[in-house]
Amino acid sequence: MNKHIKVAPPRKLDRWSGIIGLALFAGVCHAAPNDLKTTVQEVLQGHPEVREIQETWRATQTEIAQAEGGKRPIIDFRGAYGGERTDDRSIVSTSVDRVRSDAELKLVLPLYDGGLTRAEVSVANHRTDGDFHRIDTTGQVIALRVIRAFLDVLQERELFTIARQSETAFDRHRQNERSRLDGGFGSIADFEQAVSRHALSQVRTTDAQEQVERASTGYRSEVGDAPGDLTMPALQDHGRFSDFNQAMALAKSQHPLLRLQKTEIDVSSAEQTAAGAPMRPKLNLEANVLATNDAGGFNGKEYDARMQMVVRWNLYNGGRDRQRLRKAAFNVDVAQQAYAVSYRAVEQELRLAFSSLKANQDNANRLQKRLNSSRKVLDAYATERRLGSRSSLDLLTAETDLFNAETDAATVRYNILFDQYRLLAASGQLLDEFSVELQVLDD
Predict the structure, then answer these.
(1) Which tens digits make up the pLDDT trace of 392-425?
(2) Domains identified in the chain and CATH numbers
(3) Integer Cα distance of 248 and 346 in angstroms
(4) How far apart are CA 148 and CA 27, in angstroms?
(5) Which pTM does this prediction carry?
(6) Within a 10 A sphere around the Cβ of 168, how many other Cβ atoms?
(7) Pairing state of beta strands 96-112 and 282-293?
């Protein structure tokens, strides 16, 4: 944002005031301008939306370890101590009260669980991949917002400069008409017309200043800091902005949203496999050691040790497993349709970006011709006005046309630049353009 410094009358400065003033001035003069690439990188690396998904990815990583735990043995220990009454006439003649104690150690080694563990590991792995692509999807959206805010500040600052220059020009016309009127060869109508146009130019300058403030507020909202001295970005074409089919092929393979939707299909397919696991038999190797003391009406200690292969197969549980399997199959269809919807959205955005870019590029040439002609017309009218062969109204109209031409030419330049970034986003190349890697999260 341009800052206008009001110069105060000279006054005597003490030694420290001078030193501090020079230091502040040096700091301002040597402040490095902000470029778009650095701004996008810094915003994305610390953005809370990105960090949130990165933490989600870390949480999903633990699900993989949890699922892999199904391959490992299960060891349980049970200990008990308390009173027991035995009233079994085949063992004792009368009721017997004793204090008994038990200790049991049980080992279960899963040999086959119907493919449940493998399916759960697959689900967790695909979810982790999905979080990777979700990070890039969110990062790309944020990057495009930052680009829009960055370019808005540059554009509104340039439009403000154009408005100030136009205001200065109309003020000069007003002064010239005042001089002509005072010299006796001007007219009140010409002077008032110049005053009116100058007042309108001041309104435009005020509006432009307000737009600069608005753009700066938007920048602060996206970046987290006020815009300083921003440098104009430049993009290399390399044929990326002329071939729709090539861009669509890149989008199909690289766009993070489509990659995310593909992993959702993989997740649903793995969940379908997991849903069928309860319908299959399970085979475990189970070992059990039991030690008792004064149990079951007998005095003394007893030991029991067993190791056996155990098969469990749920043959019927009310049809719940079958319905769960049907639901999982429907979820696969839902994920496939979600991918199709996302594919259409990406294709639509890419077509709109290409269409907007082409229209703005075509208009840029026309608007540049208009700007060149407006300058020539204004120069010619100014000469003719000095010679008395052109009216003040013609000159003021030409000045207004020049302002409009400069404004439109500047606007279309920024539209073209944003359309190029928009096209990169639509084809999934935006983060690569800024060399941003969001998938590694430091502990």
Answers:
(1) 999 999 999 999 999 999 999 999 999 999 999 9
(2) 34-73+115-279+321-433 (1.20.1600.10)
(3) 9
(4) 28
(5) 0.79
(6) 12
(7) antiparallel
